């Protein structure tokens, strides 16, 4: 198989690209692009694709409100959320060397949900709702720090990280349920919609602000990405080749938190995307982290945007949260993985 080497920053970073990887990325770009255009066309008011193209190119302006104000930011936000969740799941699975790890299973999403519901229950009437994403991100960070600190015992082992994450996730879910029971009906309804996972009401400000949050972990993933491949072999080998394992684990855990927390902040508790996307991507390309991360991001983007498209068109005039459909697919997928890896 022929490889091309991409060198960046005066050869400090080199990435090998294969023909298989290029074809896979091109194929997923095409698939995501088709679904993206369909999401701009389909809805309670069907707009032909030809008119969508004309609207986007500025040739007509009769669908400005529907296409550019309602559907376009929603579709873009779905892509960003899916990509962030997919890469967050890939990082966790590589970090803890467990195929069942994902942000919603290990407790990061539960932490983000705890932060958001706490804000909705106690701060929504006092503080502007524009700070809801920040509350969700801080909740995810708090959960990750607690998991890391409680797991620490002269270092952090993958199995401790997973077990403590699952336990802390259960505690935070119980706290969220308690707050919902004690809250007013309007607050409970708003919280339940957010917890289910929905991109309803996405705006351009959501898209732009989410992009800024996602830009923070990208440099760390580029610089330390290749080291994660070595870490998957084993900690002893990683130490022998000069990798500071504990520091790298902490950096990647924070990157995963930032990605998953940001996604949860803007779309709520969309589950199982971080579990499914890495597994689908691994069946298509080599396990090298940089190339795998790109394909995983595309798969995650596809899962969320197709779920959102089905959610808002299949049951018209109802607009079902996208998280309902990702959970409907993800739960059987999770059971399949449990059966597949039952002896490992």
Strand content: under 5%
Average pLDDT number: 80
- Per DSSP, the total helix count is 15
What percent of residues adopt helix (DSSP H or I)?
over 70%
The CATH architecture classification is: Orthogonal Bundle
Under CATH, the topology can be stated as ABC transporter involved in vitamin B12 uptake, BtuC
Radius of gyration: 20 Å
Q: Which shape, going by the Cα principal axes? A: globular
Which CATH C-level class is it? Mainly Alpha
Structural class based on helices, strands and sheet pairing:
mainly alpha
| Unreliable stretches covering 5 or more consecutive residues | none
Number of strands: 2
Give the distance, in angstroms, between the N- and C-terminal Cα atoms.
31 Å
- CATH homologous superfamily (4th level) name: ABC transporter involved in vitamin B12 uptake, BtuC
**Domains (count):** 1
Q: Tell me about the biggest sheet?
A: 2 strands, antiparallel
Main sheet strand line-up: 1-2
SSE order = EEHHHHHHHHHHHHHHH
Describe the structure in your own words.
It is a single chain. With 344 residues, the protein is mainly alpha-helical. It has a single domain (25-340), classed as ABC transporter involved in vitamin B12 uptake, BtuC. 73% of the residues lie in helices and 3% in strands. The protein is built from 15 helices and 2 strands. It has helices at 19-41, 49-57, 64-96, 103-106, 108-122, 132-151, 158-182, 185-196, 204-215, 218-233, 235-240, 245-267, 273-282, 289-313, 322-340; strands at 3-8, 13-18. A two-stranded antiparallel ribbon has the order 1-2. Strand 1 (3-8) and strand 2 form a beta hairpin. The longest helix has 33 residues, at 64-96. The radius of gyration is 20 Å and the shape is globular. The model has no long low-confidence stretch (mean pLDDT 80).
């Amino acid at each position: 198989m022929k490889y091309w080497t991409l060198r960046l920053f005066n050869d400090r970073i080199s990435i090998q690209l294969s023909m298989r990887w290029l074809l896979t990325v091109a194929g997923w770009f095409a698939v995501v692009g088709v679904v993206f255009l369909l999401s701009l066309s389909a809805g309670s008011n069907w707009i032909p694709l030809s008119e969508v193209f004309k609207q986007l190119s500025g040739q007509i302006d009769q669908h400005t409100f529907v296409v550019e104000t309602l559907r376009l930011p929603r579709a873009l936000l779905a892509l960003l959320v899916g990509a962030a969740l997919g890469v967050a799941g890939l990082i966790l699975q590589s970090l803890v060397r467990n195929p069942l790890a994902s942000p919603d299973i290990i407790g990061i999403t539960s932490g983000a949900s705890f932060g958001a519901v706490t804000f909705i229950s106690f701060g929504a009437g006092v503080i502007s709702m524009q700070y809801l994403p920040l509350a969700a991100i801080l909740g995810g960070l708090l959960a990750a720090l607690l998991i890391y600190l409680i797991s620490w015992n002269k270092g952090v082992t993958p199995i401790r990280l997973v077990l403590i994450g699952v336990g802390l996730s259960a505690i935070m879910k119980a706290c969220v349920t308690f707050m919902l029971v004690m809250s007013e009906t309007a607050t409970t309804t708003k919280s339940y919609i957010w917890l289910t996972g929905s991109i309803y009401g996405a705006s351009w400000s959501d898209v732009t602000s989410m992009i800024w949050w996602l830009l923070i972990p990208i440099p760390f993933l580029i610089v330390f990405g290749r080291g994660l491949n070595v870490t998957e072999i084993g900690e002893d080998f990683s130490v022998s080749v000069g990798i500071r394992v504990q520091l790298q684990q902490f950096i990647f855990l924070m990157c995963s938190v930032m990605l998953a927390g940001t996604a949860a902040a803007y779309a709520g508790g969309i589950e199982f995307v971080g579990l499914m996307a890495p597994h689908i991507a691994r069946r298509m390309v080599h396990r090298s982290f940089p190339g795998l991360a790109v394909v995983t991001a595309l798969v995650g983007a596809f899962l969320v945007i197709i779920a959102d498209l089905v959610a808002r068109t299949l049951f018209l005039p109802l607009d079902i949260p996208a998280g309902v459909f990702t959970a409907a697919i993800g739960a059987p997928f999770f059971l399949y993985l449990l059966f597949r890896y039952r002896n490992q």
